[in-house]
Amino acid sequence: MRLMNSKPSRGMRLALNLLPFVILLIIYTLASDARLLENPSDKLLPSWSSFADAVQRMAFEPSKRTGEYLLWVDSAASLQRLLLGVGISAFIGLIVGVVSGMLPLFRATFSPLVTAISLIPPMAILPILFIVFGLGELSKVMLIIIGICPILIRDLQLRTQSLPKEQLLKAQTLGANSWQIMIRVVLPQVLPPLVSAVRLTLGSAWLFLIAGEAIAATEGLGYRIFLIRRYLAMDVILPYVLWIAVLAFLMDTILRLISKRAFPWYHGRGADAHE
Amino acid sequence: MSKAIIEIKQVWKEYGDHVVLEKLNLNVQAGEFISIVGASGCGKTSLLNMLLGTEKQSRGSILLDGKPMPQEPNATRGIVFQKYSAFPHLNALENVMLGGEFASSPLLGKVFGNERKKLREQALEMLTAVGLADAALRYPSELSGGMQQRLAIAQALIKEPRILLLDEPFGALDPGIRKDMHKLIRELWKKRGLTVFMITHDLSEGFSLGSRVWVLDKPRIDPHQPERFGAQVVYDIDINSEHKLSNSIQSLIEKQQAAKVAV
């Protein structure tokens, strides 16, 4: 049988899914053991027990200096910034995208501006944000918004423009005005693409969040990683990185499930099978 | 003679130097079923778009009830396209209710309570009339091609338009289903006194459904400059009168049917 035609069975697929992770863990354990044998105070590849200690210290014991449970404080601060930034971006993206997708006059006015803004690397204007908005929460949320909002706007505008024109004509022959077509025909149909677009931009949102926190913050996952980097504390950094990945995965999964639940017509049988 | 519902006077349609339609002079009485046939690219769709209000004629005038045709689609003219007519995010019932909701709720486009109940009943009645009562709660993506077209028709008719425009409505359907749809559309046309304009590629469909057939073609062709002359209505055939079809038309039909058999 050709290789392209042989498919794994269910159990085999699961085993294959896990295989790379298992191999990575084994390689890490071997390498860590070898280094620690040579130099017991090696910090680069900590042993599993020092990971457990670090997690215990960061997540389940109050910090000696501040009395806070650092992992949870950091997570709450980062998630708040991320959700604010992504939420505001999604809202602006939806409104501006739909309006400029629907109204040629609006599009002619604002589309070039959005394109121009989206070409500016957000990290390059981070100093400006710190100068203008100060070192507080606002500048970090703004960085996320400036980073992902233009992408969302452009995506939503394209989605709106790619609705079949037959639908918009049909709605007009049903007596609808522009506003009614926007809220009853266009808006509901671009919500599922909005969720997909948000899922895709979550990665960039995390990037901007951690960059912002690394430079100016007093708590947050990114702040912590960059703070303890000075002590080569790999036993804390690696669990933090893993935790960020878990959070990102959870957010992606939740969005996917919400979309499936809320828009059955988009994912349903017979539809063009959007995942 | 009753006054014409649509009058087309000396209408030309040009895109730059490209003449698509020329010298159209046609009157349509209320209640006529007009099939528009012709080769692809001969301006059938341009003609329909002018009747819908999405395109403007380059010269001449089109009158609706003696007044200039509105330059935008509105509720006087319903339309059914070949596809994409139904809204995918609404189930069949909601699709049909939408027209009523637009009319009674300018701000939200959505009604609640008793008013909703009333619209629901009307919509169900309409769905029953097109044979979709059982599929009222299904989304368009869960309906077959024929059912989707039934839905599109129900959706258009709920607004009680006086004019119904059909843009190759059955072009994508299987022959058997097409026959059912012919029966349905003929019934609805007679019962509701609609004025129907239907574009079709299928000559025999045009002749069997229409009470009048317009054949669009270019009577003059400049081989060096094909876009110099536009198409006209070269035959305007009243099916109800007992006139025998002219030979050329008959041979046209035979030719098309032969081509079909060959396929």
Q: How would you sum up this structure, described in words?
A:
The complex is a heterodimer of chains A (275) and B (263). Chain A folds into two domains: 9-38; 60-267, MetI-like (MetI-like fold). In chain A, 77% of the residues lie in helices and 0% in strands. Chain A is built from eleven helices and no strands. Chain A is globular and about 80 Å long. The two termini of chain A are 30 Å apart. With 263 residues, chain B is an alpha/beta fold. A six-stranded mixed beta sheet of chain B has the order 6-7-8-3-9-10, sandwiched between helices. Chain B has a four-stranded antiparallel beta sheet with strand order 2-1-4-5, covered by helices on one side. Chain B folds into two domains: 1-76 and 163-263, Rossmann fold, CATH 3.40.50; 87-160, no CATH class. The A-B interface holds A 164, 166-167, 169-177, 179-180, 183-185, 188-189, 263-266, 268-272 and B 52, 54, 72-75, 77-79, 81, 83-85, 87-91, 98-99, 101-103, 106-110, 139-142, 152, 155-156, 159, 161. Chain A: It is found in: Cell membrane. Chain A: This is ABC transporter permease. Chain A: Keywords: Cell membrane, Membrane, Transmembrane, Transmembrane helix, Transport. Chain A: Belongs to the binding-protein-dependent transport system permease family.
Topology:
The complex is a heterodimer of chains A (275) and B (263).
Chain A: H1 10-38, H2 48-60, H3 70-102, H4 104-119, H5 126-133, H6 137-161, H7 165-173, H8 178-215, H9 221-228, H10 234-262, H11 264-267
Chain B: E1 6-15, E2 18-28, E3 33-38, H1 44-52, E4 59-64, E5 67-68, E6 77-80, H2 92-104, H3 113-129, H4 145-157, E7 163-167, H5 175-192, E8 195-199, H6 203-209, E9 212-217, E10 232-238, H7 247-262
Parallel strand pairs in B: 3-8, 3-9, 6-7, 7-8
Antiparallel strand pairs in B: 1-2, 1-4, 4-5, 9-10
Helix pairs in contact in B: 2-3, 2-4, 3-4
